[in-house]
Amino acid sequence: xxxxxxxxxxxxxxxxxxxxxxxxxxxxxxxxWYGRTGMAEEYRYNLELFKEIRRFITYREQLGMFAVFxxxxxxxxxxxxxxxxxxxxxxxxxxxxxxxxSFGLSLCVEVVQLFTRVGSFDVDDILLNTIxxxxxxxxxxxxxxxxxxxxxxxxxxx
Length: 158
Known about the structure:
Number of strands: 2
Shape: elongated
Strand content: under 5%
Largest sheet: 2 strands, parallel
Strand order of the largest sheet: 1-2
Structural class: mainly alpha
């Protein structure tokens, strides 16, 4: 692959990452669809691990499968691109580094939600977001292995 192609791909990756960050900020703090229409009067937070996860699973019939999916899997899926992009951008990447950065960003998001009262502070969200970031790292590793195998096969054909 030429240097120009590599530069174009990296620039495209950076643009995608910036767009993803804008989407994340909008979705987590501004999206009216999830009730983020301003400060809540009631101060909501959850400091007990697995409390909300258990509640969503226990009351899945009453809440509806969309609400369960959006809360449990949505919190995971929304951080998968972060784990992928942070691994792609890092010079020194690794499982624990991605775990730490995913946890850190998720904690920051939850603390901002706590102070702005947009959404609610939930330790279960931190756990699910961190799992999403780690899954993004695993996806990056798989894609990187496939890319390297393809590149090696191409080099052997020359």
